[in-house]
Specification:
The strands form two sheets. Strands 1-2-6-5 form a four-stranded antiparallel beta sheet. The chain is globular, with a radius of gyration of 20 Å. With 220 residues, it is an alpha+beta fold. Helix 2 (45-55) crosses helix 6. The protein has helices at 15-29, 45-55, 75-96, 99-105, 116-119, 144-161, 176-180, 212-215; strands at residues 67-72, 122-128, 131-134, 137-140, 165-166, 188-196.
Length: 220
């Protein structure tokens, strides 16, 4: 398949405006936190649709768009997923994780119980697709993990900018989600993301992000 090429341009902004916009976006995103205490207040489906469309605008290897976003609001299904996730998580906390890993997690107050899956009005499960099935044949996708990772970043930013909160949850192993959500054989679970408003009494750890000089190197 060949794509036609079309003209593309963006307005050239003054340096001052570039700086202002970049600072404003950083200040917004710097307020983003991983939240584990959700309100059950409903979020319109239209919002979730727009969030997924934003995520799906991400770049991907050979423009294969190797992702599927499964958005769940069904109460019974969310509870079934919670039970399956907690089963895997309990085994991880009780023996799969190393002592060092558990020690690193301890200050964040995490454990195997995942009540947010029940409470958050929406759960978005991100799947990656290593290949497509076309006319009964496998067609490989490229840079799948990188592409889906970028799309997930877009999704998290979109959730925050919409005024909602989220959490990246990765119960390991995650294959139970394929069966629970009746997904095809070419899809692999990548992230489970609860989406909603924070609870009135929501708390987050008082953590601090690394400074610019700790994460960036500028080479002249």
């Amino acid at each position: 398949m060949e794509f036609p090429f079309i003209p593309y341009s963006r307005p050239i902004l003054a340096e001052k405006e570039l700086i202002r916009r970049s600072e404003e976006f950083f200040e917004q995103m710097d307020q983003r936190r991983s939240v584990r205490h959700f309100s059950a207040a409903p979020v319109p489906r239209a919002v979730i649709e727009n969030l997924i469309l934003t995520a799906s605008s991400a770049p991907s290897g050979a423009h294969k768009q190797p992702w599927t976003f499964v958005a769940i609001s069904n109460t019974e299904l969310k509870h079934a997923i919670r039970e399956l996730a907690e089963k895997e998580e309990k085994e991880s906390y009780d023996g799969r994780m190393s002592e060092e890993w558990l020690k690193d997690l301890a200050p964040l107050g995490t454990d195997w119980q995942k009540e947010f899956i029940d409470i958050a009005p929406w759960i978005i499960v991100v799947f990656k697709r290593p290949y497509e099935i076309v006319n009964g044949e496998k067609k490989n996708n490229y840079y799948v993990t990188e592409s889906v990772g970028i799309a997930s970043g877009f999704l998290l930013a979109a959730i925050h900018m919409a005024g909602l909160v989220s959490l990246t949850h990765t119960p390991s192993p995650m294959n139970f989600l394929v069966k629970a959500l009746e997904r095809p054989e070419n899809e692999r679970p990548f992230l489970l993301i609860p989406v909603g408003y924070p609870a009135d009494d929501a708390m987050v750890p008082d953590i601090h992000r690394r400074k610019l000089e700790e994460v960036a190197v500028f080479v002249k």
